Amino acid sequence: MKFSKFYFGVDYYPEHWPEERWPEDVILMKAAGFNIVRLAEFAWAKMEPQDGQFDFDWLDRVIEILSNQDIQVVLGTPTASPPPWLMAKQKDLFRVDSQGNRLTYGNRREYCPNHPFYHQHSHQIASKMVEHYAGNKAVIGWQIDNELGSRCYCNICRDRFHKWLQKRYQDLDNLNKKWGTVFWSHIYTDWSQIPVPLKLPLPANTGYGQNPSLHLDYNRFMSDSYRTYQKLQIDAIRQYTSEQFITHNLMGFRYDELNYYDTVEDLDFVSWDNYWRTQWNMESELDPSSAALSADTMRGLKRQNFWVMEQQSGGGGWDTVAITPKPGQLRLWAYQTIAHGADAILFFRWRTCRTGTEQNWQGVLEHHGIPGRRYDEILQMGSELEKIGRVLLGAQNTPQVAIMQSYDTRFAFQIQPNNPRFDYKQHIQDIYRGFFRANIPVDIVSEKTSLDGYKLVFVPAMYILTEKMTRNLEQFAKGGGVVIFTPRTGVKDDFNTVVNKKLPGLVSQMAGVEVEEYISMPIDEDSEIQFALSDLESQFSASVWADVLKPTTAQTVAHFTKDYYTGQAAATINAFGDGKVIYLGTMGDDTYYEAIVRTLSGLADVHPLLETPIGVEVAERWKGDQRLLFLLNHTLQNQEIQLDGRYINLLDNKPIKDTITIPPLDLIVLVD
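RE: above sequence
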């Protein structure tokens, strides 16, 4: 979706503050350079104080004040936090958690996503809102709900699950065969016998104990349920308008209870919420690659630019006060998301709440509402974007490298992580960090994505592997691409059952290798490997998992040097068509992935954007033939960078060549 301006704004909750304060807030927003505000996503009780009685007068007045200052509006449908009168009507409106406990009122997102009565009221409030605001020129779009997710295990969901299964499998004989229900004598003779996968009381409460096929399908079903619930509201909006956009604020890379590739299909574009500093990450140092990975993941969902609907504006905390962002970090973090594809930044929130759960979640203004350091920092950014926003708008990220991820595989590893130290998300993060530190741009793509235009595709632990995915990878490699696999690839089919062949299963031929033996390593003991490549003759620690490899057509490029599998192949490379396929038989630390990335990227003729010290991030966007280069210093020291040509500094319009010094927690945007 194309926009005429770069949007820079804030999330505002006027219902929390006296109405006489609203004009002052809006004047301060305008001074900060804001041209967009999100409203109303938690205001259901204000808009519908009683069942069927609607009041939009207060919201009309807020929107008018904003519009008078040329500030446009995104409205949120308020269904993430229903009013008490609604949830009091039926006890089974509340979601049931994975241990069988029904939630009670007091938080948010307590609802069952499949409940017909909740669907009815969600459709009604969305319809009433859009009927009222479809013709309002200040309202340019809609956000559905807020951070959708959290699985439900109630009887309504169980009944819907049975219908979902009937559509997928047609008959019980087929389901029993695909799931292998002969195990433990679980052969179903009626759909109603199929349970939901509640967490069972296993030792140390470490697992679920349910059939992995049943459990994977339930996770898929719940993801589909939220998509259906979202579509219900999208359809309500589209009854009245086709001009206002529709989006939803997702939660970045780490959240994995929904298949985000499916979730976004019905949306005009992706939005997400970007938080570095919250009460849940209180470490003194944060990894800048983590936020970059989330941005690249969100961009990869629809392979287009995105909005950040909630960009951190201070420390984020509920019961605990998060570590305060240092001066410069709010601006730096916001520019990082722009560097990775943001065409809009909205800070969360305008003013820190004096009441409620989020009293410790800092806004642009503190509780007292008087502008301070954070406001001044964001005001600086607003002034900059006033000058360069049109240059940034629509510029594209065009990486030559893709990391392929699968939500089916994520769901499957939630059920069976294989090793206590293995985390699929962390495995992708570790690989991504190697590219990040080398300043090599990356797309995060679906297992179903066309690979045209890439030179190298990294396929980490593709546990669930289908024939269609295999053909996609084979075609890419035959055409000259470089494919890299890691352990636990090709283990399961689409039904989460283990394949009846040597691993890595369907990709054994293209990899030119078979897994002779796989070894789950002790939690307190690692192995070692030695590489023997011209550009990589190094020894590394190997951890978590070891695939002892037997090359068929591949060449051994590394071997194990510790334990009973010493001397056996640990990594191989195979010629396949005009391309190359690498199989890495183990996992490692940062030094391992950094070395692997640089060596194997070279095989694909992919090179760093610039060489920089660790902690200095480089990213690029392209607008036609014009290259925008972002240099972001995440360290607390001055950093001197050697440039590769002549540039113009967009922030001050001055020419730069040779070297540049970037102050701590600062950045520069260059154009060639």
